[in-house]
Structure formats: structure tokens, C-alpha cells
Amino acid sequence: MSDTTTPASKGQDFEQTLDQSDTQVASFETDQHTVLERIQHLLHNNPTLVPVIVLVISLIAFGLIAGGKFFSAFNLSLILQQVSIIGILAAAQSLIIITAGIDLSVAAIMVLMSVVMGNLAVFAGVPSGLAILVGLAGGVGAGVMNGWFITRIKLPPFITTLGTWSIFYALLLWLSGAQSIRGQDIDTNAPFLKFFGAAFNIGGARITLSALLMIVVFIVLWFMLNKTAWGRHVYAIGDDKEAADLSGIRTDRTLLSVYGLAGFVCALGGWASIGRVGSISPQSFYEGNLDSITAVVIGGISLFGGRGSIMGALFGALIVGVFRSGLRLSGVDVLWQVFAIGWLIIIAVAIDQWIRRVSA
């Protein structure tokens, strides 16, 4: 039995069916976000906004509480000087935390490399420039050592760097004999080691080269993380390492470079710390690890990796400096200064958890 339907009749049937169809335009419901949800989305898209707001509020609050002394050019420049070394450590720590890791050995690397530079230049007669290069190379080596254990042996970053912290700390005590290198000896034999301790005055403010170095380090690392393919890979690893692997990123190699770069930044901080302190002490910056993590967390960089701007760590370090200076000028005991910083950390992590719910 043959089909006698002509093409013309098929077209007419289609047109009749089309005429009888629903002609209403499709509509979609739009979610009405509350003000709180809009703020949550804004902070998620701009993670540096939180520390900036906290810094501005802190400056205003302590300016009102502590009086005119707080806003003096000298005091503000003093805050910058005080946070310069911890700020450099926070920059190194930020690189690691963005990859969803953590480094408990940053301060030990910094102090160890300052001891290496001092021993070579002051006691061994090695030219200061060469001693500094050896120290910087040693910082890279220490960082790569951490990265090798993490990428090749597959040890967790926390356990790895906890172990290497003990190793590096024991080495610096052995190399230094648990003795400081006096400022007079450095001035006599290797004054270039104190290069970043030099300062200049601008309108009552005293700016040290170590403070300028901190700012330069943050700018360079910000450019590397935001304007290069390497930086995009670093964030991708922190967000989801397995997905980064599947997308073709050489995750182990990138992680190794991150830890090596962090070690270099720590060694640079070690050189700057000699000028900041004026001597080389194996006991200096003992709490540097916790201080660097504090600056990173308060700066809005997520401890879970993959989110946050390295500039946030700079603002985080400044917030800690502002709090300590403001509380000190207000006559608050050091004990309660530590108490306040502890609450800052808890609040910062709580805000980070709240912001992360946007992407959940």
C-alpha cells in the first residue's frame, strides 16, 4: 500500500498545527538576592575588599581612640617598618597557601639564610655580594627540598614543612653556635649585609629600604600570579589539583617552582632582616611562621586554596601592624594585644567560610 500524501498536503498540515500551537513567549524566573547575598557575592568576586575595609576602619578607629599621635607621619612609617619582614614572609606564605598548601618553615629558612650570609661574609671573609648570592641560592634549595617531598614523595605540606622547620632550625643553631653576630662585626667586615636597613626621611616619615623591598616583592608576585600563565596554573592547582592535571597542567613541576620561589623570597627576607634588626640572631623571628599565616588569613586568602589576591596578605600584615600600634598607643597591655589578634584570625576565617558558600 503506497503513501499517497503529497508534499503540499504535508506542508498544509504543518501550518495548521503551527497555528494551533501556544504563542506565548518563554519566561524565566529571576532570583531576587537579598542585600546580604549581594554583599556575599561582591566579596567573593573581590576577595581583597574585606582586608581593605578592615584596614580603613582600623585606621579611623585607632585615630579616634589613640589621638593625633597615631596619625603622625613617624608612627605610620614605623608601622610600615615593623611589618616589612613579616610582610615578606607573608608573601612567600601566600604562594604556598594559594596552592592549598601551608609552609611552617618560612621563618626558619629566612633566619638560616641570614646566618649563612653572616658566617660567610663576617667570619669566612667571603665578599658580601657572593655571600648574599649563596644565601639566596640556599633559600631556593630549601624551598625546592620542601616541594620535592610534597610532589615526589607525596607527603602532606603540613607534615613536610613541620619536619623541615625542625631540620632548618637545628642547622641554624649549629651554624651559629647559638650565638648572635654583633652589629659592630657586620659594620666592620660586611656592611653591605645591612643595605636594607638604610632609610630616608620624607615629611617626618622615616622610610626604610626593607619597607620598599616588601612593596616591590608584592607587586612582582602579583604580576606573576595575575598576568602570566604560570600564575593561572598556580590558582588552578589550588582550586582543584586533579582537574588541573586533567587539563594538561604539569602540576608537580608548577608546585616545585612555587616552593622554590617561596624559598627565594624567604632568603630575600633574611637579607632584609639583617638591616632591620641590625644584627644576626638565631632566635630572631621565632614566631614568624604564625605571624605570616596570620597576615595571609586576615588578608582574605583562603586556607583551602585557589582564591584570594596576594595583595590581601600585604593588607593583612598592615592590619596586624595597625592593631598593635593602635593598642600600644592606647595603653593596652601586650597580653591583650595578642588576645585581639587571635580574635582577628578567627573572624577572618569565619568570613572566608561564609564567602565560600557562594561557590558551594
Automatic annotation (TrEMBL):
Signal peptide: none annotated. One of its GO terms (cellular component) is plasma membrane. Keywords: Cell membrane, Membrane, Transmembrane, Transmembrane helix. GO terms for molecular function: transmembrane transporter activity. It is found in: Cell membrane. The keyword Transmembrane applies. The keyword Membrane applies. The chain crosses the membrane at residues 48-66, 78-98, 104-123, 130-149, 155-175, 195-225, 256-274, 295-322, 334-355. It is a multi-pass membrane protein. It comes from the Bacteria. InterPro entries: ABC_transp_permease. This is Ribose ABC transporter permease. It comes from Actibacterium atlanticum.
